[in-house]
Protein 1
Amino acid sequence: MRPSQGNGPNQRSPRSPLDVSRTREDFPILKQLVRGKPLVYLDNAASAQKPQAVIDALSHFYSTNYANVHRGIHWLSERATETFEAARRSVQRFIGAAEANEIIFVRGTTEAINLVAQTYGRTHVQAGDEILISTMEHHSNIVPWQMLCQATGAVLRVAPINDEGELLLDEFEKLLHPRTKLVAIAHVSNVLGTINPIRKIVEIAHRHQVPVLVDGAQAAPHVALDVQALDCDFYAFSGHKLFGPTGVGVLYGKASLLEAMPPYQGGGHMIQSVTFEKTIYNKVPDRFEAGTPNIAGVVGLGVAIDYVSEIGLEAITAYERELLAYAMDQLSRISGLRLIGTAKEKAGVLSFVADEVHPHDLGTILDNEGIAIRAGHHCAQPLMSRFGVLATARASLAFYNTREEIDALTTGIRTAIEFFT
Amino acid sequence: MTLDMRELYQEAILDHNRKPRNFHKLEGTSRTAEGYNPLCGDKVKIYLKIENDRVSDVSFEGSGCAISIAAASMMTESVKGRTLSAVQRLFEKFHALLTDEADAGSELIELGKLVVFAGVREFPVRVKCATLPWHTLRAAIGNKPETVSTDALPLSGRPSLTTNRVREIENKVIEVLRTVCDPEIPVNIYDLGLIYGLAVEPSGTVAIRMTLTAPGCPVAWMILREVDRKVRTIPGIADVKVDLTWDPPWSRDRMSEVAKLQLGL
Ligand SMILES: Cc1ncc(COP(=O)(O)O)c(C=O)c1O
């Protein structure tokens, strides 16, 4: 594979540009044949593949350091706890949090958002209050708020987007009321690829004294993060989309907010003392991590983060931007194909519909060529209706994808269109 | 376009997708039902008229993939005029065509042109696309107002292979591997000892782990592809996975006695 490193002139040049043939070597799954053809994995927004370092780390951890955490008085439990807490510090550095205590380990983005809805939401939101989201949200940043609204009598408001798939900031600001209790918004859209101007959004919301939760599921693998610079109040992401194991994710919250929040689930580890009359809750973040956590998952996530940091998010962003530009250009040359999501600030997610080919059929034909994409509503049905479609086909990039793979995709789409017309 | 795809997307399916028959609303009936596939967002609405236990008229509206549109279109053509019990029988035969291993000849005749959907059996995730209109039709016959969702339909796909069948397939795979030769050494790859692992899963997936005689072999892809292609032709196999490994490296003492004899070693 040819490394492609065309940095635009007005871009900061990364420390060292990404060598794609080398990074591909780190991902054993990419070497296999699918249906007799080399695998072209373009479903990274659904879940990303795992580097050998992460795969090995799980095995190594179970072989040498495994025990339950935070409760053993024995040597092994201490080692496991140390490894576990080191991963918390890796996450802290990765997202630029002020303290490690602001990192809560959860199952994934979905659980992180539900946690905030059920704790912060339940204590701050009352009948007649409002929660503000946007049209481009994933179901997991819609449904938890609907549930909260149903339980409290609050109202869900939705900020509109334009035809390119960009948030309309003016409209957004108009929707902020004295009764708005929280803004919940995606950093990067999983369908459109739009990168929302989070810094600006937070600034506007804070001007109205409204805290902001950011759904970073699609941003964490592609965009360098600094939650303090963004000044967001909560930030959620999933390990499995960040080249880590499944079943582990992160909720970041500002310490001042977390400390004032009631616990999420009750159980072991989240308490300081329990009598049948009264339970004293543990400090943050333990209060939100009831029960035995996904210990190996957390350790694996730490290693994934170290792996990604070593390549460097600047290098990743630069590489992916160039690959995305190439892909957008190639796809836009296919007649009868409509790209959905053409924001100026865009990450490596390409949604498209073909006039004559249903996304599902397109998916099957590409699959037959060894190309994995996703077809469907991508858990964003309100967004589908915004663009007047029931489903799209979606190719989503990671830093191990190549121009050759984009070429395979384009050829596959052309073949499918020919076949059906 | 590869052969597989023509098997799935038969000409008749493409034709019905481009020009769906009975694709409109049917006035003067309240007998309707809606079907929905949450996986891909496919929607279908069936309109039905029944007179004397017979389908006197049927039509549909909706949007979906080629398989689901063609299935709905061809379904309306084949059930019009039939008695309700005949429709039920046809549904069962159609379902069996998509999900069962055995395809008895007599059933195919009864299915008529619906046999073009036989290829869908090889694509388990697509089976529900073809059966959704039929399930929706049954809901309309039963006058059930709630939307039929493919989530509630029974899991389709192949039944898992018996242990005996797994063994049979393993032997066939070895037979086939013995027909693939290494370009450098004129002995088949099985007797050369290039196959490090061979597993037939009950799902019908064959996993092969293999090496080549020399790393950096320029025709590596070709050999792997040949293995994949040939193994794939064995009946009863759902999928083939070929993994190339260099660990441990191949050496001459991995060759079978047959191979050594053949090379005069
Ligand atoms: C934007 C966005 N938010 C939230 C989620 C949910 O993530 P998870 O399923 O890992 O909880 C996803 C995953 O597809 C996503 O793309």
Protein 2
Amino acid sequence: MPLLPAQLERMEYLLGKAQHTSLTPAEQDELRRYVVAEQPEAQDVTFETIVTLGLIIVGAYLLYRYLESTA
Amino acid sequence: MEIPDQWVGALLVGLVLLVLGQFLLSYRAFYQHKEEVRGFVDAKAETIARSIDNWNIKNENCSIRIDTIYARLESFESKQDQAGKDIWNRTDQMERRLQDNLSRLKKDILVLQTTSELLRKAGLRESEDAYKKQRGDE
């Protein structure tokens, strides 16, 4: 994964915040940067798509962490 | 004055000879004209016969060409039928292949949708937990 664990945790926080309140433009840009780092084709997609992709990336990261812990 | 009998006789004989001569000349002229007409008619008949021969030859050539055209047309129709069958066979094959690909694609999309939905739900829960935890820490 190109993202560092700290970046993923930050992304988790931003995504959680996006479910409850709206993100500031700076936070939206930060979240977009993280998602684009994982998926460069998401450069010009809407913020809604960025959130969906971010949630999938976090889910995959969880699965990865679980598999790594059971290995 | 009295005309002598010898003069009358000589005149009559002369007249008869003159008539006979005229008759001979007329007959000869008529015969010559008849020969000319016959020659003219023969020449015309020969020309007509030659024209008919030419026409027959042309007609025969036309018949041969028509036969050739019919043969080509039949060949073309046969090829066209075969091409039509080939096209439909290929279309059927392509349709079957496309349907197979489409069903595989639908299956892949369903798998991807399910996977992404599961991952999204897991990510949603984890991110909400992370947000609440960090907000609680603050």
